[in-house]
Amino acid sequence: MNDKNRIFLFDTTLRDGEQSPGVSLNVEEKLEIAQQLARLGVDVIEAGFPIASPGDFQAVKTIAQTVKGPIIAGLARANRADIERAWEALKYAENPRIHTFLATSDIHLKYKLQKTRSEMLAQAVDAVKYARQFCPDVEFSAEDATRSDLDFLAEVVAAVISAGATVVNLPDTVGYTVPEEFEKFMRTIIERIPNNEQVIFSVHCHDDLGLAVANSLSGLRAGARQVECTVNGIGERAGNASLEEIIMALYTKHAFFQKEVNIKYNEIYKTSRMVSNLTGMLIQSNKAIVGNNAFAHESGIHQDGVLKERTTYEIMSPELVGVHKNNLVLGKHSGRHAFKERLLELGYELSEAELQKAFALFKDLADKKKEISDDDIEALLKDQGRSVPEKFTLEYLHISSGTNMIPTATVRLSIDKMPFEAAATGSGPMEAACHAVDKITDIYGRLLEYKLHAVTGGKDALGEVLSKVEIGEKIYNGRGLSTDIIEASVKSYVHAINKYYYEKQHENGS
Ligand SMILES: CC(=O)SCCNC(=O)CCNC(=O)[C@H](O)C(C)(C)COP(=O)(O)OP(=O)(O)OC[C@H]1O[C@@H](n2cnc3c(N)ncnc32)[C@H](O)[C@@H]1OP(=O)(O)O
Ligand SMILES: CC(C)C(=O)C(=O)O
Asked: So what's the ipTM on this one?
């Protein structure tokens, strides 16, 4: 492989992706995603912004200690306290990287930083030099690069390289550029830097105009060798460039781009679902590569074409990205062998104990539902793999509700295997059930947001409920799954309560 054409994938799902409004991941969830990103084969995992909170510090540290293979990066503003905190968390990594940034545009300098250009330049150089005292790999990002004065930006880039930056990132922070313009911009800066091969140029594009992926690809054509992106394109405001779209554009249009990435393509779908599940950010059905409709054909002429020759209407094969084509029908009469076989095909290798548990859940579901699809199985596994231990488990739920009556819920939870029951009323069945849960747990949550969708098709579909529950000053994402939507809703509420409880136990060191 010609090394100049090797593209480094910098995944920032755990940092910029977590900046999506309403998303907050705990340490275990971040670690689970980081491990999956390592399996996918990304080159760099930006694990967080260590000075942002004790939780983010702990997440970066845990990932640095645990995840082997990719470079582990942490973000730091261009000041010594941020850099020291980042290093404290990153120093355990096999390959650590400090990522420091400072804005270069006049708008940011004047209004946000209230600094002159020369003060900015000196601060950037100082930050990079300071970071290099700790870490051999230092990335500098010129925030809002695309709205910066080109001559000044080139001066900053040259100065931070002389100060020791190994990677220089030129972000389109507010998603303002368009592909041709961005390609020219990147080319101009790269060409102005003497010995530009000594450093890796990087792009980081936001999706405010829906152009993040197109702009990132243009940046790569101009000579950038690192691309920063997130799974499902999540991130601040309209999000970042989507990792899976970039990967598949480079793969499908290889003859055009002639760039190489080192990725396990068949891990893409699983990674996408995991991130959606843990962040609570649903994937729109028509989302490229990973949406439910991405490989579905609805109209007769298309179906006819695909049946005769798949490539008439498919430019990628679903199997390549890990979307499995379902042939073997699993249902209530299926046994462990068929179930295990399907799990392996879906990329899940479970221990014997996990398999037993998953099989029991599968049989329960098969009693309620005629056919079990791959989506059902994935949903069951996600449900089983709840990221925190279950202190409270929903055992029984009875709702009485209707026109002209006060909705009432009776709930039984098991706490350490002991049953506890309570009844409560509310303005609706869900509120009544939540009040009953609160009475039992003595934890009082406020349901802020609530999304229901069918994970699988048909009248007996599995419903997935993703909820955001405010407890104290924090918001917890909950997830629940059932063929009964009220049960799924209450499960998601209990899941959020479990997360809160787990966090409190950890804070108290018990
Ligand atoms: C483009 C991006 O995505 S950048 C990353 C954005 N991500 C985040 O902000 C998430 C995490 N952030 C946080 O938790 C908090 O903002 C913290 C902990 C970093 C800082 O919190 P606070 O100290 O309370 O400051 P606050 O966020 O209100 O303001 C930011 C301060 O940093 C300064 N600042 C902003 N960017 C930089 C930078 N790159 N280098 C140095 N200082 C910076 C601002 O000028 C402001 O300084 P001031 O207090 O002297 O006016
Ligand atoms: C910190 C930088 C890379 C950033 O997130 C942005 O500019 O959008």
From this structure: 0.98
